[in-house]
Amino acid sequence: MTSTRINNEKSSIRNKLRKISTINAAVILLLCWLLLTSTSLLFIKRYEKRNLELIAATLSTSLTAATVFEDSYDAHNKIALLGNEGMFASARLVTAGNTVLVNWHDRQDQSSWYQNMLRRWIYVKPLDVAITHTENRVGTLTLDGTVNGAADFIRYSVMILSSGMLCVLIISFLLSEFLHRGILVSLRNITSSIHYVIRSGDFSQRIPRNPTREFQLFSEDLNSLLSEMQTLKASLLRDNRSLAAKALEDPLTGLANRSAFVARLSQLLDQQLAQENFVLLFLDGDRFKSINDSWGHAAGDEVLKAIGARLAALAHQQDMVARLGGDEFAMLISSRTGEDDLLQLTEDIRAAIAQPIVIAEGTPITTSVTIGYAWSQHGDSVASILERADMNMYKNKGMSKVRV
């Protein structure tokens, strides 16, 4: 009797420990489920809104010309192209004069009550984006977001998360007899480390060693994952910096590209009241097509790189040399402020370009450029000074043909 009573007490204590562990694990997992679910919902809401804003910003830029000229056909094609890919549910384009150019709706959109409720929660109201041209509002683009992807994401996330939580609860119940004394400490160490990483984004955090073998293996796997994520984050930061630099660089010559050139030109025009005038030079190759036809595109690339290097050698530190595309180059010269200096520079450029360029086969190639320039003037815009320099360049090209 005494032995049976002791066994029953031991059994009762074991059952209580099981119940305590199970209830404790269930509560913790439920809180984690609620936290992850609410976090996922907030994340998907922010992501969908931000995604719609990015789509609207990109689409509004591409619709500027169609809105200005009230080209409803072109505007409808551009909107339908993105809309048919499920980027949004409907779009409406109205000009500043209240002319409706496009009123597009996704005919395949058959939203359920769940999707309608989700759309009202995520977007609240349609997104209006102003379409501007030369700082004037020329129209308004209104987009209704779609929640097909978000609905599937939430549905499957809840299913997977719930299944995972259920599996963890069962495992916790089976291991409660052996791990009830250290399981809370182990979970606290792991979850606190993970929560710290989530909150701070600091992947250098590591989970400490654990006396329980299973949790130690889990900690080692998580630490390995954190190490990989830390390496990946550092690599992404390096790649982003590299891409940001390459976005403003011509890949062939290493000079500034058209985007960097226009940005620098705009900056100089904004600063010209506080600084001396500058000059814009357009340089156009005279026989680049014949070089490509005679020696091939590889030789043409070598000629372009040589021209770029020679122009860069003639520029001062405060000047900019850019390749605009093809055999078109441009220079922004702020280091020379007089007409005589400019004429000397153009002569130096012609002399430098006229020097033979030896391609890989050892063949010397000679070429030349036609130069057009324009001095900056008060009230200049990017378009006006570019137009003057371009006209001057074509005028000089025509004169050189007459002399020939």
UniProtKB/TrEMBL annotation:
Keywords: Membrane, Transmembrane, Transmembrane helix. It is an enzyme of class 2 (transferase). Gene3D superfamilies: 3.30.70.270, 6.10.340.10. InterPro entries: CHASE8, Diguanylate_Cyclase, GGDEF_dom, HAMP_dom, Nucleotide_cyclase, Rev_trsase/Diguanyl_cyclase. It comes from the Bacteria. The chain crosses the membrane at residues 21-44, 153-175. It catalyses: 2 GTP = 3',3'-c-di-GMP + 2 diphosphate. SMART domains: GGDEF (SM00267). This is diguanylate cyclase. It comes from Pantoea wallisii.
